[in-house]
Structures are given as C-alpha cells and as structure tokens.
Amino acid sequence: MGAQLRVYKRRIQAVTATKKITKAMEMIAASRIVKAQRKVAASKPYATELTRAVTAVATGSNAKHPLTTEVEAPTRAAVLLVTSDRGLAGGYSSNAIKAAERLRERLASEGKEVDTYIVGRKGVAYYGFRERKVEDSWTGFTDNPAYSDAKSIAAPLIAAIQKDTAEGGVDELHIVFTEFVSMMTQNAVDDRMLPLSLDEVAEESTRKGEILPLFDFEPSAEDVLDALLPRYVESRIYNALLQAAASEHAARRRAMKSATDNAGDLIKSLSRLANAARQAEITQEISEIVGGASALADATAGSDK
C-alpha cells in the first residue's frame, strides 16, 4: 500500500470516529429538547398568574414599591446574562453575550452604571478574559436548571433592588437570555424585570381579552408586594433559565447535525481521493509488470538469436 493511500485511510478512520461522536451528541440534544420544552410550558401559567396578581395589587393601591415604582432618574442597573456551561452549541453563547453588550452600551448611554451578574461558564470566561468586574456568577446547571437555582440567583438581585444606590443598590433589573421560538429559531433577547411595566401588562391583558382580578389586601398592599417580590423575580428567572436550556439544546443539536453532515461529505471526498490513489497505484503496478514482461521477452528473444 502506497504512502498516500495510507494517509487517506487514516484520515477517513479519524473523520468516521468524529462523525459517530457528533451523531451521538445530536441525538442526545434532540432527546433533551422535548423535556426542556415541557418544563417551559409548565412554568408559564404560574409566571402569568403571578404577574397578573402583582399588577392587580399595584393598580389597586397607591403603594410605592421597588417592584412597580419607576425611579425618576435611575443611575444604576443590574444585568443578568444567561449563557451555557458547555460549548459545541454554535453561536448560542456568543449571541447572548453580544445582546448583553448592546444592552450595556444602551444603559451607559442613558447615564447608568451597570452591575453584571452571569450564569454559565462561557459568560464567566468571556468577562474573566477581559478582566471585567462581575458582581456574582453561577455555573453547573445551565442545561438542566431547577427552581432552587433560580432562587439562588434571585437572592442577590432582590437584595440589590431593595437597597439604595448610595449603598450599592440598583434602580433596575434586566435579564439577557435566549428565547426559544422553535427547533430552528432561538433569539437572544434582553428584558427588564424590575420595575414592572404596568402599562405593558395591562395592554397585553386587554389585547388577550383578560380582566385583571380584584383583590382585598391583608394586612396591606405593601406587605403583599413584599411577599410577591421574590416570587416574581424567581419565576421570571426560572422561566428564562428554562427557555435558555431549551435553546441551548436546540443550538447544540443543529451544530452537531451540521458537523455530522460535514463529516459525511468529507468522508466521501476522502474516499474518492483514496480510490483515485489506489487506482493510480494499481495502474503503476500493471505498468511495471507489463514493462518487466516486455523486457524479459526482449531478453529471451535476443538470447535465442
């Protein structure tokens, strides 16, 4: 076997092994998307009703609360960025980071300082490499988040919104995550969690033909809002984590499918080159045999004379 043919065969074996790995990762990601979609769907009713309850309390009282009260001149904002712990998911994490950078620039142009909180090793590595300050970070659960993870993330954010800016608090809470639209479409979005925009909630309810419920508040509207604040932030973060997880699996499945298809094309190309090298080698051997036979025949004919 010629040296060139051996090179092609080794490359074909290596690419075939890689193709098996990417195909397995594609199938694993595809199986996890369904579970993630179910969790997203299951979390939406609770988040929707909680938002309606908060809106009803806020519109039915004159209570001033960080959950619903706009600061006249906000000077500081917190941004929670949700990325992934692992790679091999195409541009999933980079798209979320770019959306966070755009949000950061917009807030800075409005004269606001930005405190950054990060979920996922990819975002932590990005900010760490650039030596940017990160207030807090969480890793290890991006592909399968639990409600307890959302609670641990929400705790410092709630503490920040309840503090005065002079004491290190913030006036606004924003979250950047990847919204799951479909198996083929996932969009990096930024959303303001707090203060809650009551006009937008009321407009959406009107568009859907819903009527906001009326409540009596005991012991007071302020106490009710205090109790709802952590639940609201936790539910919003949990829903964002679930959508991000579904988006991560979908992005990884698409990336691995593309890698598997490319590996298949490369194997075909290498196989054609290997066949051409083998054919050239066989042709060379035949030529050598024919040439040797011809030379032997000529030598035999010369000796007979």
Q: Average pLDDT, to the nearest integer?
A: 85
Query: For the CA atoms, what is the radius of gyration?
Result: 31 Å
- Helix count? 6
Query: H/E element string?
Result: HEHEHEHEEHH
Main sheet: strands, sense, barrel: 5 strands, mixed
> Which sequence of strands runs across the widest sheet?
3-2-1-4-5
**Shape by Cα distribution:** elongated
Count of beta strands: 5
Classify the oligomer: single chain
State the low-pLDDT regions, or none: none
Structural class: alpha/beta
Proportion in helices: 55-70%
End-to-end C-alpha gap: 40 Å
Approximate strand percentage? 5-15%
Overview of this structure, please?
By secondary structure, this protein is an alpha/beta fold. The protein has 6 helices and 5 strands; from the N terminus they run H-E-H-E-H-E-H-E-E-H-H. The chain has helices at residues 3-59, 92-109, 121-129, 147-162, 198-207, 221-304; strands at 76-82, 113-119, 136-138, 172-180, 186-194. A 5-stranded mixed beta sheet has the order 3-2-1-4-5, with helices on both faces. Strand 4 (172-180) and strand 5 form a beta hairpin. Helix 1 (3-59) packs antiparallel against helix 6 (221-304) and helix 4 crosses helix 6. The longest helix has 84 residues, at 221-304. The chain is elongated. The mean pLDDT is 85.
